[in-house]
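pasting Phage baseplate assembly protein gpV for the record, 365 residues
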Amino acid sequence: MTSWKKWTSALLAAGIIVGSGSVWQDSSVQAASVSSKVTTPAEVTLKSGGKTLTQKGLLQGGSTWVSLTAVKDVAGGTLKYDAKTKSYTVTAANNAMTVSLMDGQPNVYINGYYPQVEAKLIEGRLYIPFSAMRDYLGVQGNWDGKNKTLTLSKVKQNNVKIKAATVSVTVKNAEVDVQYPQVSGLASKEAEAAINKVLKDEVDAYVAAFKKQTSEFGGATANRPYAFESSYVVTYNEKGVLGLITQRYEDYAGAHGMTYRTGHTFALDTGKELTLDDVLQNNKTMRETLSKKVGEQLKARGGYLDGYKGLNKDQDFYVTPTGVVVFFQLYEYTAYAEGFPEMPFTYKELLPKGTEPFGNVTGSK
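structre below
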């Protein structure tokens, strides 16, 4: 592991660079949660496609946990083990989720991006929370509390492929790993090109800024190199809409590096990038209400530094299968140690009763 990635792992262990909001959980399996005081796992029967799976799920720590092998089987993906890095990678729904045991405890990252997801090693088997399957691997579930049974199925997703593209960058005494998303398979090649241009232009600008900074700063050494990484994760891929988070990490051999995130939401039929107002269906009253609620939550958090006067015109946000997450950058309104402040809101909270998410911005269903 390179020096800057060791530093990143240390920050993850301290809970610094992950988002500080609540983890999403599909409402259909919330009944499967148990008290966090429970330490002994209880078995859960897993079903899919009308059959009972040989693998068992677990109830522990307030969450429903599913083994990586069961995830692979239901998602229709692949599961690979890398002995060199002591890691398992499940690939499904345009994401590659890796659980690494290199540091002695499970660490989770997706396409190089570190989500707010915990993994557990229980009796020699790796488990992830069901919510992570729903959010990142395209699996939904229905909970039967009486029989302690979780029935899993694949989510109907858009017919689009998202793969990592790379940029080759050479800077003396700098460790650089650049990955960014590119889409293919859309019916409209114009929309496809428009989306890919936004994502490519973004990473090109980041790389150019990094090169300029390294040139101006100087001082990097082989023992304490500069570092730059970019990565991404797919957060939503349904109903003709694609949601992504892109992230970059920069380290100029200072006290600590800095991480920046950008949320992207695209209408796949036109290639248009949607704003928060688009998602709120241009409801000014709801925007004002949301702005107030975000402020209340932000100011109630530890580490609030002052300065919030309302949502930004180009407010950072991303979409998930269950709602919208409003977030802010490190240091924007909170201390660095608070990580990325994230405030999740369900579509039910944000949209008029009976309104379908994204019904106003795309003709794809």
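The longest strand covers residues 226-238.
The CA atoms of residues 79 and 90 lie 5 Å apart.
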